[in-house]
Amino acid sequence: MIRIATVQCLSIPDNASEACDAIVQRLRWADEEAIDLVVFPEAFLLGHSYSAATIRSRAREISGYALVELCECVVGFRAALVVGAFELVDGHFFNSAFVIEEGRIAGRYSKAHPNEPGVTAGSAFPTFVRSGIRFGLNICNDANHPEAPERIARQKAEVILYPLNNMLKPEAAERWRAKSLANLVGRARQTGCWIASSDVTGRSGDFLSFGCTAIVAPDGHVVARVPEMKEGVAVYDVPALQFQEPMFER
């Protein structure tokens, strides 16, 4: 069994120290609640963007020092965390999510279907083990592509994590309000895996996100969800699966 907590927040700091402080605060709570794994929204470290210039600037800051600062801040916590950021690797910009345990980067997943300008698609689908449960990651727009979770499920993963950032223009946010959860339910039924998402919510300037932070059972039943437009955490004790080869129905 693994106790997962997925965070829904009203805002994301664009300052590395403030972001680290917010993460540390959540990890203190997580250790008190015996949480094994904490998941933060897409690009939580410095924030998400659809501006190519902003993405480049934040990726350089992440790769230069912000990720190192975060790792130093989270040494000593029991809970592992998944936190995302734009990063610069060998001249390419990626939208990645990092698995961090006791201040060490255990691995990373880069968004396979990026919809941000200038961002390179990732091609690897690593899996990780925490509390005896194998899990993998997709990021936001990957939920629209059934082949992405299949790559994880075929490795006998039991959980797929989805960091999201549904901060959109209001008309687009309304269109995706039900679709985001429907995608997660579809991915659970398709793969036979548990699905856990973390999202932002509220208003930011001219943008809006209702928030789709939820934990979904393999049969598509939503077992935990943070209410729309509210800050909070979805928590669930996810049991180990008796693995069966998934049918990948779409």
From TrEMBL:
One GO BP annotation of this record: putrescine biosynthetic process from arginine
Domain annotation CN hydrolase: ranges: 2-240
InterPro entries named among the record's database cross-references: Aliph_Amidase/BUP, C-N_Hydrolase, C-N_Hydrolase_sf
Pfam family of the protein (one): CN_hydrolase
GO MF annotation list: N-carbamoylputrescine amidase activity
PROSITE patterns xrefs: CN_HYDROLASE
CDD domains hit by this protein: nitrilase
Superkingdom field: Bacteria
Keyword Mitochondrion: no
SUPFAM superfamilies on file: Carbon-nitrogen hydrolase
Keywords assigned: Hydrolase
Name under which the protein is recorded: Predicted amidohydrolase
Species of origin: Methylobacterium pseudosasicola
